[in-house]
């Protein structure tokens, strides 16, 4: 290549070839053989031919000696670079269950099933005990948790609560049917079906089966010029006699007029129809 070399001289040619000047002016070149005693050597430094084990090359990333790192796709795996070798440690996950000491994404696992009273339940399954619908159980990671069915808050007093057959929670009894009607603050009670007048003879009230009071007024349709008003009776009586100047006279009874003593009066009851 235009450069004089002495006999026995050695030099490096591009492409990591080692050349020697031999007898009779001949040049012998051989490719350099590199002995790499590590699993993840770094690329040769600038001007060098052989990789170096003073660091590590892992997934295209150069790591320094003693560097601790996690691979991009390793769940909870930890790696360390030692003399060009990469050693990784992964968490030990028992088969079929999830360890509580490791994060949930470290192990590929399925929550443990529950065996309870001879039956197997999947994780998260809810069920009731045999013959006891008032208790609800749930399977959580191999363990069964049971609790009583929650009951609503009742607004009735204790003595009005009852537990019906087949029910888990107490309920309020139906209020007792009323035995009568209370009509005033003094506690006066009328039995169901009782009819009475509340002070006005033209108004009648009745005690109904549900304990309420129903009242109705009476309309008087029979009229006459001189009716008799009987105390305690709603409508005037036109069939018993006549009322004249505050006095009561019976049918066909004669009496002198109080306005003119020469006049004689007679009570005539109006004929029906």
UniProtKB/TrEMBL annotation:
- Keyword Transmembrane helix in the entry? The reply is no
Q: Which residues belong to any copy of the VWFC domain?
A: 1-54, 54-115, 112-173, 179-239
PROSITE patterns, alphabetized: VWFC_1, VWFC_2
This protein's major location comes to secreted
Cited Gene3D superfamilies: 6.20.200.20, Complement Module, domain 1
* Any single Gene Ontology cellular-component annotation: extracellular region
InterPro entries assigned: vWF_C/EGF_Fibrillin, VWF_dom
Which UniProt key words apply to this protein?
Glycoprotein, Secreted, Signal
Q: Does the keyword Signal apply?
A: yes
Query: Where does it live in the cell?
Result: Secreted
Q: Which Gene Ontology BP annotations are present?
A: cellular response to virus
PANTHER family (UniProt xref): VON WILLEBRAND FACTOR C AND EGF DOMAIN-CONTAINING PROTEIN
Q: What is this protein called?
A: VWCE protein
